[in-house]
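Protocol step 4 of 6: structure prediction from sequence.
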Amino acid sequence: MPILIHLTSKKLISQKEINELKKRIEKALKYLKLFHKEISLVFTDNKHIKKLNTQYLGRPYPTNVLAFPFAKESPLISNILGEIIISVEKAKEESKIYEIDFKNYLLALVTHGLFHLLDYDHERGWFSPFLMLKNELNLLNKIAFKKDKKKLINFLKRREYMPAKLAVNVDHVATVREARRTCYPDPVHAAVLAELGGADGIVVHLRLDRRHIKERDVRIIKEIIKTKLILEMAIDDYLIKFAKEIKPYQVTLVPERVEEITTEGGMNLERRVEEVKKAVKELNEAGIKVSLFLNPDEKAIKLAKKTGAQIIEIHTGMYAEAETDEKREEELNKIEISARLAKDLGFIVHAGHGLNYENIGPVAAIPQIEEFSIGHSIVSRALFVGIKDAVREMKELILRARG
């Protein structure tokens, strides 16, 4: 038998629940191609699992799941993966708190333990948590019970994430060029160096007044970079047509006023949902993902759901410009709440505006934010250390915040 189940008390869980769970775990082993492997599954209470935590891990408190791989201790017993121990008492407590179906939550704990038996570790390194979670989600999408399945998946997505990515905005290299109306410095060169420094994407804002980035810059950068091009722009017929021709990886729709120095805030979607929805649809049909640049505001994010956009970029300007610790904390809290809401609504969450080497840490620690768009502070730092090192330093700060 591939699954050996032991109960420390018959009061913990019903035989019907055990049978249903066992079928799902057997499916899991098949999906993972572990056809000849066995696992031991122990259902216990908080008192027993606390004792095990204290004895083996030095943690004098109950946890929801423990996993002990046998292969490390007895490599010759190759058909036995190990033992998963679950506190059913703890699982019931947590499933009520998180308002998730108990059976599905229990199955998620077993799945988590199973990947630990396969030597995955969410407490090791920068990328290990992401890899482990990705595999858990893939498996649960196939084997989870229907009740609260979507809620469970969204809950797990909030748990741990891959280190956030950094998209570097090279607009201000073009700003320096335009100050003298010359052909240098070239934002194309900056884009290449930013990639060499570790940038995960390049951002350019093709403004209506063409004050810095030109069509020529967008075309060449799209052809030459190896990562992804993100094109920021206002909703405009010509710009939409241009985007469909260039086909960047992503278009970020932003509000724009000719007299502003830089983008002053997020889009106001009130009475504009249909207009934005039309633009999103047209860009999506051309194979382009669409992001909306929004203030950290619950109402705006809920309206964004009606537009069909795939991504939300949270405007961090108010946080970056806060003059007191109290105000900064208040704005950070808004960003955090908005990021959770956006993730729960199914958006990919990005953030940007005004972020620099001093203030990036607290925002980069928010697990729901998958990517940061940063330009001015990196270009400013590059005046002293060069583009590659400026990008490398910023990315290191982001990684540390998650690591």
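Step 5 (inspection) to follow. The chain has two domains: 3-157, 165-402.
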